[in-house]
Hints:
Layout: H1 2-10, H2 12-32, E1 45-51, H3 57-72, E2 78-86, E3 89-96, H4 102-116, E4 128-131, E5 136-144, H5 150-165, E6 170-176, E7 182-187, H6 189-195, H7 199-207, E8 216-220, E9 223-227, H8 236-240, E10 243-246, E11 249-252, H9 253-256, E12 257-262, E13 269-272, E14 275-284, H10 290-307, E15 312-316, H11 320-348, H12 351-374, H13 381-410, H14 415-441, H15 449-455, H16 457-484, H17 495-510, H18 512-532, E16 546-552, H19 559-575, H20 577-580, E17 582-593, E18 599-612, E19 614-615, H21 620-629, E20 640-642, H22 646-663, E21 668-673, E22 683-688, H23 692-707, E23 712-717, E24 721-730, H24 732-736, H25 741-752, E25 755-762, E26 765-773, H26 779-783, E27 786-788, E28 794-796, H27 797-800, E29 801-809, E30 812-815, E31 818-819, E32 821-827, H28 834-850, E33 854-859, H29 860-887, H30 893-900, H31 902-917, H32 923-947, H33 953-962, H34 964-983, H35 993-1021
Parallel strand pairs: 7-26, 19-20
Antiparallel strand pairs: 1-3, 1-4, 2-3, 2-30, 5-14, 5-15, 6-14, 7-12, 8-9, 10-11, 13-14, 13-17, 16-18, 16-21, 17-18, 22-32, 22-33, 23-32, 24-29, 25-26, 27-28, 30-31
Helix pairs in contact: 1-14, 2-12, 3-4, 10-11, 11-12, 11-13, 11-21, 11-34, 12-13, 12-16, 13-14, 13-16, 13-34, 14-16, 14-29, 14-32, 17-33, 17-35, 18-31, 18-35, 23-28, 29-30, 29-32, 31-32, 31-35, 32-35, 34-35
InterPro entries: AcrB_DN_DC_subdom, Acrflvin-R
Organism: hydrothermal vent metagenome
Protein name: Acriflavin resistance protein
Amino acid sequence: MIKFLEYFINNSRLNYALLAFLLFLGVNAYMNIPKEMFPVVELDKISVRGYYGGASAANMDKMAVRDIEDAMSNISGIDKIEATIAPGAFTIILTLTDNANKINLLNKVKDAISLSKQYLPSDMLEPTATLIDKNKPLIRVSVSSKTLSKGDLNEIAQDVKSKLSKIQNIAEVGIWGASKEEVSIKVNSEAILAYGLNPSSVVSAISNLSYIFPIGNIEEKGGFAFISTVNGKTDAHEWEESILNIDDKYVRLGDLAEVEIIYPQTSTLATFNNNETLTLVLSKGEQGDALKLSKIVIAEVEKLQKSYKNVIFNTYKDSSIPIKKRLDTVISNLMFGLILVFLSMYILINLRIAFIVALGIPFSFIIGLLFIYYLGYSINIVSLLGALIVIGIVVDDAIVVSENIQRHIDEGMDIKEASIVGVKEMMLPVSLATLTTAAAFLPMFLMHGEIALFLILVPIVVVLILLGSLIESFFFLPLHAREVLKKSNNLVDWTGAQNFYEKLLSFNIHYKKTFLLTFLVLVPLLTVLTAKSMKFQFFPNFDGNNLYVSAKIDINIPREDTFALSKKIEAEIMKHGEEFSLKSISATTGYRRSLSGETEFNNNVFYITLELYDRKDTNFISEYINPILNFSFIFNDPDKRRDKKTYELAPRLQEIIEPFREKYNMLELGVIEDKAGLIRSDIQINLSGSEDVVLEASIKELEAALSKIEGVSNFSDNIKYGKMEYKIKINSYGESLGLSEASISKVLSDFFLDKRQSTTFNSGGVMEIKTRDLNKNKKATLFNFNISLNDGRYVKLTDVASIIKIRDYESINKLNGSIVKTVFANLDKRVITPEEVLEQLNPILEKIADIGINVNLLGEKEKSKQLKSDMKSSLILAMFLIFISLLFIFSKVKYVLMVMSVIPFSVLGALLGHKLLGIPLTMPSIIGILGLAGVVINDGIIMLDFLHGTHESKEFFTRAKHRLRPILITSITTFLGLFTLIFYATGQAVILQPIAISIGFGLIWGTVLNLLYLPTLYAMVNHIKPIR
């Protein structure tokens, strides 16, 4: 290793060539690495979807879901099975365990579905199983026109979708408000009766009107040919003129039914700025760069605008805009931190060493960036903030090495020799110091679930940049030192500070027993009292760019009425556009993200998205420094108009829309804020294991209690009742006539199910042919329906069967095979935390559990429990790794334990930092405290390594005061590197601000410990006396 190092230092041209090559690779990596707001935080999941139109949720559960769940429950590698069952459809989400083979599991799930198919209805399509893509929203494109028909606009939207889908790394393009063209045949059951026809025979004849499959081919020599049909008719008139052969009677289709070629009622309706539109929702894949893709999409839309003169295109909800602004902010914070570190070294050491150290930081980051790029990670808020966290730490290696080289030069050694010797001497201690820092972050790899996916980039970035720092300090820094350093007498004089420190330390050692006893009692006591006085929430509140209104009304309200109500609320919000700094507003009827965070499709729901302008700069750094450091030079950004943060505006928005709740008897109406992605709702309480009536009463009791707790923004449940269901029960008279439940159902489904009978082609591809009764949406049609018997007679449905009315739940939610009823709540965490809410609900929860109901707390409580478990194992491993690392330096265990004792005492500094800034403890705070262990220990190593082996007072104090400068310099540079994140975090960067607070303030207090407590403890153990 030493010879390799000498070879590099002696071959400067090779060294410079490698530096240039690394710089080129770094620029290339930065240009090509994906850039996004947050990393993907979703575990691998498999989605199983099934459809059977007309079935109630309860029937779907009995005839399909239960058997599929049973078949999957024995598959190893599935952590959780969640099912949502709605009328006519179900979705089963399988969450896989960490490191499971997802392709292998997908195949096993498909096999399980195939085995359960024998229990499904014969005309039900086999449920599909797919891996859930981890796509990210990119941009939305609205397509509207004042002159074109909806059908024409539909075709244009499909064409636009096709073109945008071809863009590389565009993973998905969905359309809200669109529908597919179909042949709608509305059968007149009264006409069928008048002609004396069998309804089933009529439907069978209709299903044979089109044939789209190949017939065959002829391979005659010299005349090869394919054989096919013309695939049915081309317009509605031709269809109506079709002659049907029904039971040897020839009847014109138009005499029995009305035929239309239509775009049926869509499942969703969309608006943009309160104007009806078709909305294309574009998502990118994991490897897509949001900044590049957005530019490509916008350029393509501009081309399309020129092609379609009668169409108005708008792009909005462009994720690249906030991503670029947030990344620019963090990058400028990095630059500012670099400047602060440089200035501190210039003031505390000298200009030449400051220059060398500052020059090494970018190359350390470039090396780290290369590792990150080739390992397949992205640049996002978390990875950049990880870099910001390490900026002050990464200079420690360079400071120690360059100072050692300077010391040898000042002692008269040749510059070239000093560069080699200086690095040799520091190679082991610097490597071990880096190892201890990495050891504190490495256990974060043991974390599980979505928390690990969200935070994994922090230890990755820290460790890789520290590795880059080692490479730079050992191979490239000596080259810079040879060119820059020289014998100098202009080092900052620390004599005064060292003498003051010597006196202070001597005073402590004079009263060492009293000092240590007071210290060992007071610090733990203050730590415990401070921790107990603080609130805990999983993530800090942060300011986003969006607010959302999620709404649900009675299930029996038609989609058109839901759409009209959505537009009214949208219009009311637009009246307050200036108050909210509204950039755009859009709405989707038929779709919403519920207050619990679940996706829901139904005719009685809608979702309004408010895109807001950026918040105005509130400090000098953001307003005047950042625009220079990110090279934008935009000092009065026109997009920065908003005065309040989104979580401050949310209560006001709720106040504006609240009157609509009572006026229209709405089931749910609440405001949702942007969240980090790990937690969908702050409070989630699952109840199971009892009768529905008992569970429903318990839910209502919990909601009554929530309504009285100040700070609860909104709450909801999943016990909404669905549409009325008519159950057909055949009687003995019907059975005596040869009818059965199956035969009656088969006839009725052809008229009431909007059932696909056949397919044909149009210009866009396959088009379905569906039948329904002309008057299917009238109850009288069902009650007066006539059933054909085998002998040609007709009998009224109500004569051969009874019709039972029931009303079941709108949807059924299941977890691992058990039906669960759930209460969800979101909080204003400035007022109350989830822990405090659950504490108030605890008496009710205990009472519910006492009557035999299973109570399961999810939401933030579940994540906190998981974090606590992960942190225990991570902390134990971190301490063990640090212990092993220290044994390389100190031969005696007592000295290792002395250094490690600084770690628990330094926690007080982290807690006081949160107190000082008025920030609650969060999950990132805990992660920061774990990282603090590796950072604060380095100064302890610097101190005790020099004191180690001294037993005389004079030598002890001489060595101790010589450690004052390096300890203060490394602590100050680390703190200044974190300075902007601690005091000037904005937007989503606030999420990781607590990590910086824990490390920064913990290190400041740790510096006091390493300068006073640790030498005093060493003096007592080794019987060192104070200076007289």
